[in-house]
Specification:
By secondary structure, this protein is α/β, with parallel strands linked by helices. It is built from 6 helices and 4 strands. It has one domain: Response regulator (Rossmann fold, 3-Layer(aba) Sandwich), CATH 3.40.50.2300.
Length: about 160
């Protein structure tokens, strides 16, 4: 089982959007051997539901995220998850400070695309959830192709 943890600052906008978009992509490709989750580097939003802007994007896609509540990363997450995917430079820095990265599990989402080194903008500040969606979709598609190429998933539907 491949386990992916998406991480952003508050776990109410970008990382839950990535968690649910990636889960939907995996389901559509019939990859049951992978699972997704998300968490925050901060404590600011703990226990809160997903931001209404992200809910709107996901609802339009037919994806329900109503049960999701923000949680903070834990020390155990580093061992539990195979990939720890940050949304921006600050997330990567905070994750690396918290866990270190001896096993090279920490990556930025857009590093799986031609836009390597770029951050996913935070819609909390921009209000542009559509831009964030496009960036996250691009990153998740790149990550999915990387997963299919580098992991044995016999039932995957390759597009």
């Amino acid at each position: 089982m491949l386990k992916i943890l998406f991480v952003c600052h508050g776990n109410i906008c970008r990382s839950p959007m990535a968690e649910f978009i990636m889960r939907d992509m995996l389901e559509k490709r019939r990859i049951a051997e992978a699972e997704t989750a998300s968490a925050a580097t901060s404590t600011e939003e703990l226990g809160n539901g997903v931001h209404y802007g992200t809910v709107g994007v996901l609802s339009r896609l037919g994806i329900d995220c109503s049960a999701k509540r923000a949680r903070q990363i834990t020390k155990a997450d580093y061992d539990e998850y195979d990939l720890l995917i940050g949304m921006d430079t600050e997330n990567i820095r905070n994750m690396t400070r918290y866990w270190g990265d001896k096993k090279h599990k920490i990556h930025r989402l857009l590093d799986f695309t031609e836009r390597r080194g770029e951050d996913i903008s935070d819609p909390w500040y921009t209000g542009d959830f559509e831009r964030t969606y496009r960036d996250i979709k691009e990153g998740c598609e790149g990550l999915l192709q990387w997963i299919i190429k580098n992991t044995l998933f016999p039932n995957a539907v390759v597009s």
